[in-house]
Design brief:
alpha/beta, Rossmann fold, Dehydroquinate synthase-like, alpha domain, 5-stranded parallel sheet, two-stranded antiparallel ribbon
Protein backbone atom coordinates (compact mmCIF):
# COMPACT_ATOMS: atom_id res chain seq x y z
CA UNK A 1 0.00 0.00 0.00
CA UNK A 2 1.40 3.39 -1.01
CA UNK A 3 2.29 5.66 1.87
CA UNK A 4 1.28 9.31 2.24
CA UNK A 5 3.60 11.86 3.85
CA UNK A 6 2.87 15.43 4.88
CA UNK A 7 5.18 18.44 4.92
CA UNK A 8 4.19 21.63 6.72
CA UNK A 9 5.67 24.42 8.82
CA UNK A 10 5.55 25.04 12.55
CA UNK A 11 2.88 27.75 12.27
CA UNK A 12 0.44 25.50 10.42
CA UNK A 13 1.10 22.51 12.68
CA UNK A 14 0.31 24.74 15.68
CA UNK A 15 -2.76 26.49 14.26
CA UNK A 16 -4.41 23.74 12.19
CA UNK A 17 -3.67 20.28 13.62
CA UNK A 18 -7.16 19.14 12.62
CA UNK A 19 -6.45 20.04 8.98
CA UNK A 20 -3.26 17.98 9.01
CA UNK A 21 -4.99 15.01 10.65
CA UNK A 22 -7.71 15.09 7.99
CA UNK A 23 -5.19 13.85 5.40
CA UNK A 24 -4.41 10.79 7.57
CA UNK A 25 -0.68 10.85 6.72
CA UNK A 26 1.66 8.03 7.61
CA UNK A 27 4.20 10.57 8.88
CA UNK A 28 4.42 14.36 9.27
CA UNK A 29 7.46 16.63 9.01
CA UNK A 30 7.14 20.18 10.30
CA UNK A 31 9.95 22.64 9.60
CA UNK A 32 10.52 26.21 10.83
CA UNK A 33 8.40 28.81 9.06
CA UNK A 34 10.09 31.49 6.97
CA UNK A 35 12.15 31.96 3.83
CA UNK A 36 15.35 30.79 5.55
CA UNK A 37 13.95 27.25 5.50
CA UNK A 38 13.85 27.26 1.70
CA UNK A 39 17.32 25.77 1.49
CA UNK A 40 19.29 22.73 0.40
CA UNK A 41 19.57 21.77 4.08
CA UNK A 42 15.77 21.65 4.36
CA UNK A 43 15.50 19.64 1.14
CA UNK A 44 17.98 17.13 2.56
CA UNK A 45 15.93 16.96 5.76
CA UNK A 46 12.84 16.08 3.71
CA UNK A 47 14.70 13.39 1.75
CA UNK A 48 15.94 11.85 5.00
CA UNK A 49 12.43 12.00 6.44
CA UNK A 50 11.01 10.20 3.39
CA UNK A 51 13.77 7.57 3.32
CA UNK A 52 13.65 6.85 7.04
CA UNK A 53 9.86 6.39 6.91
CA UNK A 54 9.86 3.97 3.99
CA UNK A 55 8.79 6.20 1.10
CA UNK A 56 8.98 4.73 -2.40
CA UNK A 57 8.11 5.86 -5.91
CA UNK A 58 4.41 5.21 -5.28
CA UNK A 59 4.36 7.51 -2.23
CA UNK A 60 2.70 10.94 -2.12
CA UNK A 61 3.98 14.08 -0.39
CA UNK A 62 1.26 16.53 0.68
CA UNK A 63 2.64 20.06 1.07
CA UNK A 64 0.46 22.14 3.40
CA UNK A 65 1.47 25.75 3.80
CA UNK A 66 2.48 28.86 1.93
CA UNK A 67 4.80 29.36 -1.00
CA UNK A 68 7.91 28.37 0.92
CA UNK A 69 6.42 24.94 1.71
CA UNK A 70 4.98 24.32 -1.77
CA UNK A 71 8.21 25.44 -3.51
CA UNK A 72 10.44 23.43 -1.20
CA UNK A 73 8.17 20.39 -0.99
CA UNK A 74 7.65 20.28 -4.73
CA UNK A 75 11.40 20.45 -5.31
CA UNK A 76 12.05 17.66 -2.80
CA UNK A 77 9.33 15.53 -4.43
CA UNK A 78 10.78 16.18 -7.89
CA UNK A 79 14.18 14.86 -6.82
CA UNK A 80 13.30 11.98 -4.48
CA UNK A 81 13.60 8.71 -6.41
CA UNK A 82 13.50 10.85 -9.57
CA UNK A 83 10.03 12.10 -8.75
CA UNK A 84 7.14 11.17 -6.51
CA UNK A 85 3.58 12.52 -6.54
CA UNK A 86 2.98 15.69 -4.57
CA UNK A 87 -0.13 17.69 -3.69
CA UNK A 88 -0.22 21.36 -2.69
CA UNK A 89 -2.62 22.72 -0.08
CA UNK A 90 -2.20 26.51 0.00
CA UNK A 91 -2.77 28.21 3.35
CA UNK A 92 -1.74 31.71 2.26
CA UNK A 93 -3.25 34.03 -0.31
CA UNK A 94 0.09 34.24 -2.13
CA UNK A 95 0.33 30.48 -2.52
CA UNK A 96 -3.32 30.15 -3.50
CA UNK A 97 -3.16 32.68 -6.34
CA UNK A 98 0.36 31.96 -7.57
CA UNK A 99 3.10 30.03 -5.77
CA UNK A 100 1.32 26.68 -5.37
CA UNK A 101 0.04 26.66 -8.96
CA UNK A 102 1.80 25.68 -12.15
CA UNK A 103 4.61 23.34 -11.19
CA UNK A 104 7.53 25.68 -10.52
CA UNK A 105 9.52 24.45 -7.53
CA UNK A 106 12.78 25.58 -6.01
CA UNK A 107 15.05 26.61 -3.21
CA UNK A 108 17.19 29.69 -2.58
CA UNK A 109 20.94 29.38 -3.11
CA UNK A 110 23.91 31.71 -2.54
CA UNK A 111 21.55 34.56 -1.67
CA UNK A 112 19.54 34.22 -4.90
CA UNK A 113 15.87 33.36 -4.78
CA UNK A 114 14.75 30.11 -6.47
CA UNK A 115 18.21 29.65 -7.96
CA UNK A 116 17.93 25.84 -7.81
CA UNK A 117 14.70 24.17 -8.86
CA UNK A 118 12.71 21.97 -11.19
CA UNK A 119 9.42 21.92 -13.04
CA UNK A 120 7.17 19.44 -11.21
CA UNK A 121 3.41 19.72 -11.62
CA UNK A 122 1.42 18.91 -8.48
CA UNK A 123 -1.19 16.21 -8.84
CA UNK A 124 -3.66 18.60 -7.24
CA UNK A 125 -3.71 22.14 -5.83
CA UNK A 126 -6.32 23.34 -3.34
CA UNK A 127 -6.64 26.37 -1.07
CA UNK A 128 -7.59 26.30 2.60
CA UNK A 129 -9.18 29.77 2.66
CA UNK A 130 -10.07 29.80 6.41
CA UNK A 131 -6.34 30.05 7.08
CA UNK A 132 -6.19 33.42 5.32
CA UNK A 133 -7.95 35.01 8.31
CA UNK A 134 -4.95 34.29 10.53
CA UNK A 135 -2.45 35.94 8.17
CA UNK A 136 -0.74 39.18 9.15
CA UNK A 137 -1.49 42.21 7.01
CA UNK A 138 1.90 41.96 5.30
CA UNK A 139 1.06 38.47 4.00
CA UNK A 140 -2.34 39.56 2.72
CA UNK A 141 -0.65 42.42 0.87
CA UNK A 142 1.89 39.94 -0.49
CA UNK A 143 -0.78 37.69 -1.95
CA UNK A 144 -2.90 40.51 -3.31
CA UNK A 145 0.05 41.86 -5.30
CA UNK A 146 0.27 38.55 -7.18
CA UNK A 147 -3.47 38.70 -7.86
CA UNK A 148 -3.08 42.23 -9.24
CA UNK A 149 -0.16 41.04 -11.37
CA UNK A 150 -2.43 38.38 -12.86
CA UNK A 151 -5.01 41.00 -13.76
CA UNK A 152 -2.44 43.25 -15.46
CA UNK A 153 -1.38 40.50 -17.86
CA UNK A 154 -4.95 39.34 -18.48
CA UNK A 155 -7.78 41.85 -18.06
CA UNK A 156 -8.23 45.62 -17.71
CA UNK A 157 -11.64 45.04 -16.12
CA UNK A 158 -10.16 42.88 -13.36
CA UNK A 159 -7.45 45.48 -12.69
CA UNK A 160 -10.09 48.08 -11.95
CA UNK A 161 -11.90 45.71 -9.61
CA UNK A 162 -8.75 44.68 -7.75
CA UNK A 163 -7.37 48.20 -7.36
CA UNK A 164 -10.76 49.27 -5.98
CA UNK A 165 -10.61 46.60 -3.25
CA UNK A 166 -8.96 46.80 0.16
CA UNK A 167 -6.18 44.16 -0.01
CA UNK A 168 -6.52 43.38 3.70
CA UNK A 169 -10.31 42.91 3.81
CA UNK A 170 -10.72 39.13 3.64
CA UNK A 171 -14.42 39.04 4.50
CA UNK A 172 -15.47 42.02 2.41
CA UNK A 173 -15.13 40.29 -0.94
CA UNK A 174 -15.63 36.92 -2.57
CA UNK A 175 -12.14 35.55 -1.94
CA UNK A 176 -12.87 32.23 -3.59
CA UNK A 177 -13.84 34.00 -6.83
CA UNK A 178 -10.55 35.90 -6.95
CA UNK A 179 -8.54 32.77 -6.10
CA UNK A 180 -10.35 30.78 -8.80
CA UNK A 181 -9.80 33.60 -11.32
CA UNK A 182 -6.05 33.70 -10.69
CA UNK A 183 -5.76 29.92 -10.75
CA UNK A 184 -7.67 29.77 -14.05
CA UNK A 185 -5.50 32.40 -15.73
CA UNK A 186 -2.27 30.81 -14.58
CA UNK A 187 -3.26 27.25 -15.49
CA UNK A 188 -4.40 28.38 -18.94
CA UNK A 189 -0.97 29.91 -19.54
CA UNK A 190 0.94 26.99 -18.02
CA UNK A 191 -1.00 24.45 -20.08
CA UNK A 192 0.21 26.19 -23.25
CA UNK A 193 3.82 26.55 -22.06
CA UNK A 194 4.59 24.30 -19.08
CA UNK A 195 8.36 24.89 -19.01
CA UNK A 196 8.50 28.63 -19.66
CA UNK A 197 9.84 28.55 -23.20
CA UNK A 198 7.71 31.51 -24.24
CA UNK A 199 4.21 32.52 -23.16
CA UNK A 200 4.62 31.46 -19.52
CA UNK A 201 7.24 34.19 -19.09
CA UNK A 202 4.42 36.77 -18.88
CA UNK A 203 3.71 35.44 -15.37
CA UNK A 204 6.95 37.15 -14.35
CA UNK A 205 5.43 40.61 -14.77
CA UNK A 206 6.75 42.70 -11.88
CA UNK A 207 9.14 39.99 -10.76
CA UNK A 208 12.42 41.05 -12.35
CA UNK A 209 12.71 44.20 -10.25
CA UNK A 210 10.64 42.58 -7.50
CA UNK A 211 13.14 39.76 -7.00
CA UNK A 212 15.98 42.31 -6.97
CA UNK A 213 14.20 44.34 -4.28
CA UNK A 214 13.50 41.17 -2.29
CA UNK A 215 17.12 40.00 -2.47
CA UNK A 216 18.48 43.44 -1.60
CA UNK A 217 16.30 43.63 1.51
CA UNK A 218 17.32 40.10 2.49
CA UNK A 219 21.03 40.92 2.29
CA UNK A 220 20.41 43.78 4.73
CA UNK A 221 18.61 41.52 7.20
CA UNK A 222 15.44 43.57 6.64
CA UNK A 223 13.41 41.03 4.62
CA UNK A 224 10.09 41.92 3.04
CA UNK A 225 7.42 39.44 1.91
CA UNK A 226 7.79 38.26 -1.68
CA UNK A 227 4.56 39.86 -2.88
CA UNK A 228 5.36 43.21 -1.27
CA UNK A 229 8.60 43.29 -3.25
CA UNK A 230 6.66 42.27 -6.38
CA UNK A 231 4.12 45.05 -5.76
CA UNK A 232 6.97 47.55 -6.03
CA UNK A 233 8.41 45.63 -8.98
CA UNK A 234 5.09 46.06 -10.80
CA UNK A 235 5.49 49.82 -10.58
CA UNK A 236 8.97 49.57 -12.12
CA UNK A 237 7.54 47.41 -14.93
CA UNK A 238 4.73 49.92 -15.55
CA UNK A 239 7.20 52.82 -15.68
CA UNK A 240 9.38 50.91 -18.15
CA UNK A 241 6.27 50.08 -20.17
CA UNK A 242 5.41 53.78 -20.32
CA UNK A 243 8.99 54.62 -21.36
CA UNK A 244 9.57 51.79 -23.83
CA UNK A 245 6.34 50.22 -25.11
CA UNK A 246 3.78 53.01 -25.14
CA UNK A 247 1.67 52.15 -22.10
CA UNK A 248 -0.55 55.17 -21.33
CA UNK A 249 0.72 57.20 -18.39
CA UNK A 250 -2.52 56.98 -16.42
CA UNK A 251 -1.80 53.33 -15.64
CA UNK A 252 1.47 54.32 -13.96
CA UNK A 253 -0.09 57.08 -11.86
CA UNK A 254 -3.17 55.03 -10.93
CA UNK A 255 -1.08 52.11 -9.72
CA UNK A 256 1.47 54.31 -7.94
CA UNK A 257 -1.35 55.99 -5.97
CA UNK A 258 -2.78 52.60 -4.97
CA UNK A 259 0.65 51.19 -4.06
CA UNK A 260 1.53 54.19 -1.90
CA UNK A 261 -1.81 53.99 -0.07
CA UNK A 262 -1.65 50.32 0.90
CA UNK A 263 1.95 49.09 0.76
CA UNK A 264 4.96 49.95 2.92
CA UNK A 265 7.72 51.96 1.33
CA UNK A 266 10.98 50.10 0.66
CA UNK A 267 14.14 51.61 2.08
CA UNK A 268 15.78 52.17 -1.30
CA UNK A 269 17.73 55.20 -2.50
CA UNK A 270 19.80 56.18 -5.52
CA UNK A 271 22.81 54.61 -3.79
CA UNK A 272 21.16 51.22 -4.34
CA UNK A 273 20.56 51.57 -8.08
CA UNK A 274 23.80 49.86 -9.15
CA UNK A 275 23.10 46.93 -6.82
CA UNK A 276 19.55 46.59 -8.16
CA UNK A 277 20.84 46.58 -11.75
CA UNK A 278 23.40 43.92 -10.84
CA UNK A 279 20.72 41.76 -9.22
CA UNK A 280 18.42 41.99 -12.25
CA UNK A 281 21.37 40.91 -14.41
CA UNK A 282 21.44 37.63 -12.44
CA UNK A 283 17.77 36.93 -13.16
CA UNK A 284 17.19 33.44 -14.57
CA UNK A 285 15.19 34.84 -17.51
CA UNK A 286 18.17 36.69 -18.93
CA UNK A 287 20.11 35.67 -22.02
CA UNK A 288 22.57 38.55 -21.66
CA UNK A 289 24.66 39.57 -18.67
CA UNK A 290 24.28 43.30 -19.41
CA UNK A 291 20.62 43.76 -20.35
CA UNK A 292 17.86 42.39 -18.10
CA UNK A 293 14.79 40.84 -19.70
CA UNK A 294 11.53 42.33 -18.42
CA UNK A 295 7.88 41.61 -19.00
CA UNK A 296 6.30 44.88 -20.11
CA UNK A 297 2.81 45.94 -21.21
CA UNK A 298 1.62 47.66 -24.37
CA UNK A 299 -1.81 47.82 -22.72
CA UNK A 300 -3.30 45.99 -19.73
CA UNK A 301 -3.88 42.44 -20.95
CA UNK A 302 -1.25 42.81 -23.71
CA UNK A 303 2.09 41.77 -22.21
CA UNK A 304 5.44 41.50 -23.99
CA UNK A 305 8.05 39.12 -22.63
CA UNK A 306 11.83 39.08 -23.11
CA UNK A 307 12.00 42.85 -23.50
CA UNK A 308 15.66 43.81 -22.90
CA UNK A 309 16.23 46.78 -20.60
CA UNK A 310 19.63 48.43 -20.26
CA UNK A 311 21.07 49.43 -16.89
CA UNK A 312 20.57 53.11 -17.76
CA UNK A 313 16.92 52.54 -18.72
CA UNK A 314 16.38 50.74 -15.44
CA UNK A 315 18.09 53.52 -13.47
CA UNK A 316 15.86 56.09 -15.19
CA UNK A 317 12.81 54.04 -14.17
CA UNK A 318 14.13 53.78 -10.60
CA UNK A 319 14.55 57.58 -10.53
CA UNK A 320 10.88 58.08 -11.44
CA UNK A 321 9.83 55.33 -9.04
CA UNK A 322 11.55 57.20 -6.20
CA UNK A 323 9.55 60.35 -6.95
CA UNK A 324 6.21 58.47 -7.09
CA UNK A 325 6.45 56.66 -3.77
Amino acid sequence: MAKTFLLTDDNISRLYPELLRSYNPDAVLSIPAGESSKSIASAEKIWRFLSENGANRQSTLICVGGGMITDLGGFAAACFKRGITHINVATTLLAAVDAAIGGKTGIDFMGLKNEIGAFKMPAETTAYIPAFRTLPQSELLSGWAEAVKTAYIDSADMISEMLAADPTDIDGRDMKRFVDYCRGVKMSIVSQDPKEQGLRKILNFGHTAGHAFETLMLTRDTPVPHGVAVAHGILIALILSFDLTGLPQQHVTQYATWLKHYYPRLNISCRDFDAICALTAHDKKNTDTTFANFVLLEQPGSPIYDRPVSPQQLKDALDLYATLI
